[in-house]
Amino acid sequence: MSFVALHDIDPVFKKFSFSEELSNLLKSLDYKRPVIIQSMYIFKGVVELALYNVHALYSSESVSNVEEFLFQQPGIGGEVVPHQDNSFLYTEPTTCTGLWLALEDATILNGCIWAIPGSHKDGLVRRFMRDEEGVHFDRPSPSYDQKDFVPIEVKAGSLVVIHGDLIHQSFENQSSKSRHAYSLHTVDTVGCKWAPDNWLVN
Fold it and tell me: Membrane-spanning regions, if any (predicted)?
């Protein structure tokens, strides 16, 4: 379960998303004029504490309407199949970078990210695109050997930077603890072009 576009609609998440720290990070990755294409709050458990933690870090205000978020329990939180972010947010040339902020400790048991080291060097495997028939992948998914994936276990407050071609996934939360994260996806707007057949109309 997730909430989307929080960088636009929530003042606390907006403050973090457009912070000087993130701007400097993207500059260090050679972004010239980055834009946030997508943001998500990803639920894998009870969200009350995690939301209060975010607001405590970036705002003196309490969480508003927190009761709307109190429906996910530990042990609930879906699997995310192996994918590359550039498949969904395609520019020519490719420039997508994922920024994944752990709001709680992310472990193997509660559904941390897993990735294939070095897979970003092999390029983009397939695209998710829009045409007159709707939205679809342009080719079938390859099969991956699960032995190639390694877990990325991180403490709350850690920021995981994900290359757009890195193959990564996560499993269901099988623990009694929640695992929540705030995810941003950015692309550059200098020297590249947003593909007109992207599924996400920009």
Answer: none
